[in-house]
Specification:
By secondary structure, the chain is of the alpha+beta class. The protein is built from 15 helices and nine strands. The longest helix has 33 residues.
Length: 386
Amino acid sequence: MYRQTERKEAVKRKPARPPLLLLVLPLLAAVTLLAFLFLNRFSLRAERCFLAGDYAAAAQALEQAEDGWREKALLEAFVSAGLQLSSDDVDTVRTGRDALLSCQEQYPDFHPRAISALREETDARLTGMFYQAGCAAVRREEYTLALSYFREIPGYEDADLWKRYAQALEYRDSTSRYHLSRALRTLQSIPEEDRGLFPVDVNELIAEFTQKVQAAEQAALQRDEARIEALEAIGLPYLGMSEEKIHSTRQLGPAAESGSYYGFGTEYSWYDAQGRTIYSAVCRRGQVASVSKYHEDVCWQGDTLLVRTGPAPSEPAAPSGGGAGSWHPPAEEYTGDSEEGRDYDTGPGSGHSLRDDYSDPEDLFEDCEGEYEDLDEAWDEWEEGL
């Protein structure tokens, strides 16, 4: 009896076995962690190498990493940028910098402090590389390439002076008066004490460009004279013609009617015997600023008038085959060359500048109301007007 009681008490004191699930879960967690570490060992190694700046080793580790992991795609983007950053070629490093910025925007949570520090280090390195590459390009006379580098580092040492030099020399072989004059002003803006810094002395270039500008102005004047002679032979009002001659053209003769043109000038009109408008000219500041032909299908053959002119009708018929046209100021008259193969003059054959026509930009702004958005734009035009 005593032994039976003792056995019952021993059974009661025996600890209960824990559920099987509690034993399996830690084991599963450990196995999962080990599997993750095993499968990602190369990605983790690549991450460590990237953060240490060993991009080649990081790339080798990624080659052995398992595909399909988000971390691998992320690291591939950063490591690719890092490989470019380690180059000695300025354009490759610039591409790597842009790629790094793109990666940082796409994956902002990937070691943000380390990536920001890498960007700062890259920018500092690139600044010096841009400067050296720009100066080297100038010495090779590759001025457009040099400008692409100097524009990256505004305010760095004397990079702005080198940029001005390159901007001017870019037009050394141009025949455009606009480009040559602009280049001359750019060279003149380089301080006297810095003009011996470059491959060719700036003072020598100023003398060279001055001669080229004078030759271009003479050529433009000759072109204008030939153009005006040809236009006068046609016998019609032409852009830039003196308003005093408006009534004495060979084909049209005196204008039948004149009146204010929206407050911007005076409009002269010619009609045929049937009262149809056949031609009109708008004058401003004593010159023809725009011309328009009408009824070209029946009244004109090219520049030859096919009908007789007549008086102004009491109620003119609506123009057809033409229109009043947009106003073209003399300052934009075509004379041969410009920034895109043309050269704009401020008055046909005159060789004048806006500074000759206006004593200050405020007069220009008021006289050409509506042409400029504000006074600052008029200032820019007046200062750069040739």
